[in-house]
Amino acid sequence: MTKLTNNQKKFLRSKSHNLKPIVMVGQHGLNESVLVELEITMDKHELLKIKIRMDKRAEKQKIIDKIINTYHAYLVQVIGNIVVIYRAFDEDPQIILPRK
């Protein structure tokens, strides 16, 4: 899959509504411990909320882009400091996306 469709994003947003942010990126950005925590968490969860505490939008966007590219995830939604990403499990995915 190259991109998520609007219906798939809508479906994932509805699934993420009740989730709490699991990983928090602080003012020091993506350091080694945060990257390790993200890797461990993404092995357990397909849909993930991340809280990014950055004042500058450009820096926050760079962090989001790095997370998406490093972990081959899809960006579902950004609201304020909360980012929702999705990466299906390689084996036995738990979330079945709608086709269109």
Oligomer: single chain
Provide a count of the helices: 3
What is the beta-strand fraction? 15-25%
| Number of E strands | 4
What sort of overall outline do the alpha carbons produce when their principal axes are compared? globular
In terms of per-residue confidence, which ranges show pLDDT below 50 for 5 or more consecutive residues?
none
The whole-angstrom Rg is 13 Å
Q: What is the arithmetic mean of pLDDT? A: 91
Please trace the helix and strand order, writing H or E for each element.
HEHEHEE
Between the first and last Cα atoms, what is the distance in angstroms?
Answer: 12 Å
Structural class: alpha+beta
The helix content, as a percent range, equals 25-40%
Read across the widest sheet, the strand sequence of neighbours is 1-2-4-3
Main β sheet profile = 4 strands, mixed
What is the structure about, briefly put?
By secondary structure, this protein is an alpha+beta fold. It has helices at 6-16, 32-44, 57-71, and strands at 23-25, 47-52, 74-79, 82-86.
Mind explaining what this structure looks like?
The protein has three helices and four strands, in the order αβαβαββ. It is α+β, with helices and mostly antiparallel strands and 100 residues long. It has a four-stranded mixed beta sheet, sandwiched between helices. A hairpin with a 2-residue loop joins β3 and β4. The protein is globular. The model has no long low-confidence stretch (mean pLDDT 91).
